[in-house]
Design brief:
Elements: H1 11-27, E1 35-36, H2 38-45, H3 49-61, E2 65-68, E3 72-75, H4 80-102, H5 107-125, H6 129-147, H7 150-174, H8 179-194, H9 197-207, H10 210-213
Antiparallel strand pairs: 1-3, 2-3
Helix pairs in contact: 1-3, 2-3, 4-6, 4-7, 4-9, 5-6, 5-8, 6-7, 8-9
């Protein structure tokens, strides 16, 4: 017997809602801990609850929202202790990704990474915290992709997307300067070019040191 197929879903509408909500979270329009009610969002965005539900599932997969049974969905909120735990895992995974990537870099790849840092620097100069967070993620994603390990890329994306969104919001609220982070990104490219594993590890640990990575405004 032929399998009965279900209705085709409006994927484009769900993706549109996902991108809208993702941008709102990264820009700080939706703040950590804010409740996201499906009916209310559907009314605001003039869509049914189906694409809202699908978009929230995508956001949950990225760690940007938390869904708790019988309590609903909220924008991810991280304590300082939680951020320290995430950072411990990220350091090890980033070291692995950068070491693997270093072995795969050619001139074109190095040029691309330098361009990503330049794009990040431009956003910093414009005091665009949301744009800086996105450019920061694009740079790291580029390096992860050169590692050739898809599991590593997916894992780091799940760790870093909520991290960068949360950090971006706090830095925006306190108007924290991002200029020193640009130098650290240039340093990461330089050690990748040298392809020295120990130097790469030191650069990653320096880049992700909690005193630099976690905004002072984040409390326990």
């Amino acid at each position: 017997m032929a399998r009965t197929l279900g209705p085709v879903k409006n994927v484009s509408k769900a993706q549109e809602v996902f991108l809208t909500l993702r941008e709102a979270i990264l820009a700080g329009d939706l703040k950590p801990g804010d409740s996201l009610k499906e009916a209310h969002l559907a009314q605001q965005l003039h869509v049914s609850q189906v694409p809202i539900r699908e978009a929230l599932l995508q956001l949950e997969h990225l760690g940007l929202v938390v869904r708790v049974p019988d309590r609903g969905t909220t924008v991810t909120k991280l304590s300082r202790a939680e951020m320290l735990e995430l950072l411990q895992v990220r350091v090890y995974l980033e070291e692995m990704a950068f070491r693997l990537a270093a072995a795969n870099l050619d001139k074109a790849a190095i040029q691309k990474l330098r361009q990503e840092v330049q794009a990040f620097e431009k956003k910093v100069e414009e005091n665009d915290y949301y744009g800086s967070a996105e450019a920061d993620l694009r740079f790291h994603e580029a390096v992860w992709n050169y590692s050739g390990n898809r599991v590593l890329v997916d894992t780091l994306n799940r760790l870093c997307t909520p991290w960068l969104a949360f950090v971006s919001l706090h830095r925006h609220m306190t108007k924290e300067s991002l200029k020193k982070t640009v130098d650290r990104h240039h340093a990461l490219v330089n050690v990748l070019v040298k392809r020295e594993p120990e130097a790469i590890s030191r650069a990653i640990r320096n880049h992700l040191d909690p005193s630099r990575s976690i905004p002072v405004s984040v409390k326990e």
